[in-house]
Amino acid sequence: MRIAGLLVACAVGMGCTVGTTDVTDGELDEMSLDRVPGYRTMSRINAHAYKSTLGAFDVNCYVAGDIVDYRKIHPERSGSNATVAHGTMIVREVLDTSGQVAKLTVMAKGPPGYDPSLGDWWFAVTDPRGTPLVENGVVQLGRLSQCHNCHLDRSHDDFLFGVSSSYF
Fold it and tell me: Helix or strand or coil: residue 46?
């Protein structure tokens, strides 16, 4: 829990530092997953659900941490040059056809050096309670190749897609 507090403090600008030697992959998994069940206390970015670009489903987006820089990023225009603070967490509710939460996609900005090739982002796909899903025998947690491959082209937006301001 001590490490999770340090990352959250970093996200709100309290001047802490967390190096790669401070957090193992397992610790980052644990502390990030510990935050997921409370995602609805985070700031909801969109006023109403919007269509995902990844499929025929709607999503809601919640953010804890660096909301100001996150809002500078637009899903249809790359080049914001925004970088969100370490410790920031983004949770997207993926809604089923009846509007119920089917699963969550989660990103957390890990400590510097966690994954420099992708801005230190950590990923997870969970059920609505925050339990990681398993796909093809792989727990959907950590450095997920399918997430990495999709986000890699967004380097000028801290590897994020953001939410269109028309949904704020």
Answer: coil
